[in-house]
Amino acid sequence: MTRDINAVKMKQVRTTILGNLNRMYPTPLQVRTLYRVMIAFDENYSLSLMEKDVTYLKQKGYVEYIDEMLGGGDSFEKKVLALTAEGKEIADRTQTDDALEI
């Protein structure tokens, strides 16, 4: 049961990240700013968990670090994150991803 709850929570967090980036689309957000929004939903959400979630979304092709094109930020918090076209489709629910469906 706990495993199911954790899976649902993980999906909710990742969907919330995409949703917040979608609200600002096409403007990117600094990870630090997005993290502040995320801890408003869950004060126990850590920056290390966010890094794992963002890495997952990046590997899926839904987000990208736009500052990597310019040499990258010196820390995760300072990176600038943007929604990709594929991520926009998932956030708008015009496409689905079973791994993010609750």
List the helices and strands and how they pair.
Blueprint: H1 2-24, E1 29-30, H2 31-41, H3 47-60, E2 63-65, E3 80-83, H4 85-91
Antiparallel strand pairs: 1-3, 2-3
Helix pairs in contact: 1-4
The CATH topology label is: Arc Repressor Mutant, subunit A
**What composes the largest sheet?**
3 strands, antiparallel
What structural class do helix, strand and pairing data support? mainly alpha
Number of strands: 3
Question: Could you name the ranges where pLDDT drops below 50 across 5 or more consecutive residues?
Answer: none
Helical content stands at 40-55%
Helices and strands, in order, run as HEHHEEH
Q: Overall 3D geometry?
A: globular
CATH architecture: Orthogonal Bundle
* CA(first)-CA(last) distance: 15 Å
Mean pLDDT: 91
As a percent range, the share of strand residues is: 5-15%
The CATH fourth-level homologous superfamily: Winged helix-like DNA-binding domain superfamily/Winged helix DNA-binding domain
Cα-atom radius of gyration = 13 Å
CATH class call: Mainly Alpha
Number of domains: 1
Across the major sheet, the strand order is 1-3-2
Number of helices: 4
